[in-house]
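Standup notes, protein team

Yesterday: finished cleaning the Paenibacillus taichungensis set.
Today: Platelet-activating factor acetylhydrolase structure.
Blockers: none.

Input for Platelet-activating factor acetylhydrolase:
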Amino acid sequence: MTVGKKIFVLKDESRIDPISMETREVLISIYYPSNPVEHESKYISFFEPNISSAVDMLSSMGVDKDYICNLDTKIHNYECVDITAKNCPIIFIAPAFGIVRDMYSFCVEHLVECGFVVITIGATHESIFSIFPDGRFVQQSKEISEIDSLDIHSWKQLLKLRVENISWVLKNVDKVLDSDNDLKAIVDVNEMGIIGHSLGGAAAYELLKREKRIKASILLDPSFHLMTTSKEERVTVQLLVARQEKCSFEELENEISPDLLPLLLSGYESLFNSSDLNSSFIKLNGTHHMTFSDIPIHYNEDGIEQKHSTINKYISAFLEEHLKKEESKFHELLKNKINDGIDQVNSKGHVI
């Protein structure tokens, strides 16, 4: 199957962007099943129409320019929608702090092949860069790049912006689909899920408190220290929380600052204890925080293809069980988790 991609800019006239002091603009990419094409597509096509600026910035961060320019992808910009596809649930993806919304292609390709339409939601001024259809190249703002890891107030403000952005996209998703009859014809707007990574995971969780259209959520190593759990705002949606290999106090005490670690661990424990009884908490052995994105692909990390394959298998099974009503598909998969390098973990991050 070929995956198509279209970009939309959603302007929120009701909000002023705190960085640009202009109308807030939210970039989204919509990925969908498209008609087969004969020509190849390169990863750097994600960065059209300003590929050179994106490649230069990635190169300045240690990415091999020749390697990234020759990396292939199954995703093709603005290809025709495959109108034979039907009843595709919509999956929103909220990226990690700084990560460009299109840098989850490993997951996007797989989900579209499994019959989902995927919408990734950008964070202008927070991502390392944002590229608009008119060619504008907006880098991460200096004030955001300098937020201290323990400046919880500033992080909560950034989280608030993220939640507002995602809410705005959900509010306008029907309008976007109305503008493209072929896309509208293949989606099922009654079945929606959300995947959030890191800061995006915390934002996805906060969204669940106010958005009843979301019926399944996957949190990929989310920012637990920024998440607020309470009986008054209980989230009833079943969660899949997937963590990196190191997730207990013993594993993290030499990895994370002693001031931040207690906040992260207590946030995780609160989430665990307040979640739906049927929610699942797992860790993927051999992974780190950025394994849940394309970043390891950029640096040609050894073994990343297999790790991404495992992540995809569990993500798609969970969403198929809850949004496509393929009964017990995810829970049957869990029975063979040891063979996949997956462990279930308790409230302390210990293997059970």
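Follow-up from PR in the comments: The chain has a mean pLDDT of 96.
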